[in-house]
Design brief:
0% strand; 9 helices; 80% helix
Length: 208
């Protein structure tokens, strides 16, 4: 099982990834702004039910195969680095258009749950995390890889529910301001870009 030091570093990397808005966070914020707090929280549950698919895939073979093959691990690692650099540069170079109120159709809670599930199953940011980041924290000498992946995945779920829950609560409370504030969105883009580039640098420096 991962030791406390490994779990601490993993938790920090996980929070950095989770707090940067990606498809899942944007979905949660959109639903929270459009339909309120309960809609946002239902969306959070759907998103992290989708996370279970990534955890299962990693635990039942993907990460084990990558850990056993240095070449495959390195290829996936640098694909992850390239994707994070691309995300970071895109965020830093993005210039928002004039903000206008956007009407979002109301959906049932059941539909929002399953939409959140699909959004995260197909979320490339989550996939890259589980393919490129998570294997860095699994130690072949600490026991079977599968159970370690499940523990790390559980940490991801707990932190994800907490961070995305905060997004849902804040965005529902600040719905009007979020709709109007182009400056806040630009600052969020810049901060997100810096975090993505920092994660790419960390992943590049991490030992296989």
């Amino acid at each position: 099982m991962p030791d406390l030091a490994t779990l601490a570093v993993f938790s920090a990397a996980t929070l950095a990834m989770l707090l940067v808005p990606g498809p899942a966070v944007l979905f949660i914020v959109t639903r929270s702004v459009a339909q309120g707090r309960s809609a946002g929280l239902v969306s959070v549950l759907g998103v992290h039910t989708g996370s279970l698919v990534h955890i299962a895939g990693a635990a039942f073979g993907i990460s084990a195969v990558l850990a056993a093959s240095a070449t495959a691990f390195t290829v996936v690692k640098y694909v992850g680095v390239a994707y994070l650099v691309w995300l970071g540069l895109r965020k830093l170079m993005h210039r928002g258009e004039a903000e206008a109120a956007v009407e979002v159709a109301a959906h049932s809670k059941r539909r929002m749950f399953w939409e959140g599930f699909v959004v995260n199953v197909l979320n490339p940011k989550t996939a890259i995390f589980f393919l490129a980041f998570l294997p860095q924290f699994a130690d072949q000498h600490a026991g079977p890889i599968g159970p370690q992946i499940l523990v790390l995945g559980a940490v991801w779920i707990v932190l994800g529910l907490a961070s995305d829950g905060v997004y849902a609560l804040l965005s529902s409370a600040l719905a009007g301001r979020i709709r109007r504030s182009a400056r806040a969105r630009r600052r969020l883009d810049v901060g997100s870009g810096v975090v993505y580039l920092g994660l790419a640098a960390w992943l590049t420096a991490a030992k296989n």
